[in-house]
Amino acid sequence: MSERTLVLVKPDGVARGLVGEVLSRIERKGFTLVALELRTLDRATAESHYGEHAEKPFFGELVDFITSGPLLAAVIEGREAISSWRTMMGATDPAKAAPGTIRGDLATVMSENVSHGSDSPESAAREIALFFPHL
Ligand code: RTP
Ligand code: MG
After folding, report:
1. What letter does residue 92 receive in the DSSP assignment?
2. Which of 9, 86, 104, 115 could form a disulfide with 97 if both were Cys (CB 3.0 to 4.6 A apart)?
3. Is 16 known as a binding-site position?
4. Annotated catalytic sites, by residue?
5. What is the rounded CA–CA span in Å between residue 40 and residue 69?
6. Into how many domains does the chain fold?
7. Sheet holding 2-9, edge to edge
8. For the segment 87-121, what is each residue's pLDDT rounded down to a tens digit?
């Protein structure tokens, strides 16, 4: 089933010049780019985006990091895009992410793992509406 999902190239990925690498993987896979924007999140938007983690001990650091500089936000579309993009990113911890995945190939630490992808249809709908309310 064709789906849309929210992709972020997080501030570490933008700062390291990995935007082209991530977009290239999306395009080579065959997903369609529906929306694309470089922006720096304010804290309220970041806290809303990661609201599911509000009670976690790492929440403050996560919001500090995701607001620390410009990120690339994108909506991509294609068959099973939500789970497929999560597979392409690899495990949350880059040390456990398989080679060939974004995190497996391009990152070493959990807190700076280059990319985000929505984790369910409900998350995708919520996150797309947060970043791109016109869609
Ligand atoms: P994301 O939401 O950023 O795509 O990452 P994810 O689904 O793979 O992982 P999630 O559980 O949603 O966690 C969001 C981000 O928080 C950081 N994290 N740190 N110290 C820890 O135990 C811990 N757990 C998660 C990671 O940077 C993760 O991407
Ligand atoms: Mg997540």
Report:
1. S
2. 104
3. no
4. 116
5. 6
6. 1
7. 32-39, 71-79, 2-9, 115-117
8. 999 999 999 999 999 999 999 999 999 999 999 99
Distance from the CA of 111 to the center of ligand 1, in angstroms?
7
| Residue 25 exposed, middle or buried by CB count within 10 Å (0-12, 13-18, 19+) | middle
CATH code where residue 21 lies: 3.30.70.141
| pTM for the whole structure | 0.97
Which domain covers residue 56, as residue numbers?
2-131
Q: Among residues 70, 77, 73, which one has the least CA distance to residue 27?
A: 77
Q: How far apart are CA 130 and CA 39, in angstroms?
A: 13
pLDDT tens-digit profile of 74-83? 999 999 999 9
Cβ within 8 Å of residue 88, ≥6 positions away:
25, 29, 101, 102, 117
Nearest to 3 by CA among 116, 102, 128, 103: 128
Locate all alpha helices (DSSP H) within 1-135, ordered by sequence.
11-15, 19-29, 43-49, 59-66, 81-89, 102-106, 121-131
Testing ligand 1's pocket by substitution, the residue of 67, 87, 92 carrying the most ligand atoms inside 8 A of its CB is 92
